[in-house]
Amino acid sequence: MSKFFRETVALSHSGALAALQAALEKANSINVPQCICIVDVSGEVIVHFKMDGAKYLSMHTARAKARTAASINSPTGSMTADFGLAAGIASHGGVTHLPGGLPIRFSGKLAGAIGVGSGTGEQDFEVARAALTVIGADSV
User: Which InterPro entries did the record assign (predicted)?
Assistant: First the structure.
């Protein structure tokens, strides 16, 4: 391995669309309209979708959850509320402690993240996990 480069894994737009479709199907099956955001490893949005009936403000939290999960390479929701509040203020809402964000990894390598919002934290995670399963990402 060279010290001058590293190998990376990237989520394709086809993978993002397949993950989105699986998330939409799961949200429909549990009857919870959701906002879903999938980002690349740097936190840039690949796809962002608001289902009919999903809460408007959840568009922002879904994006923050995805960016946070990509940034920390870990599920969201484990920060203390105080730290999460401070991080949210410092990042102008770009980071959140709310549950519902999962990293997307293939063979342990970070490829991006998904953030889901508008349900309970567990419902958000359930929808996100369905997306990871369909694209063959590592389970979280």
Answer: GlcG_carb_metab_protein, PduO/GlcC-like, PduO/GlcC-like_sf
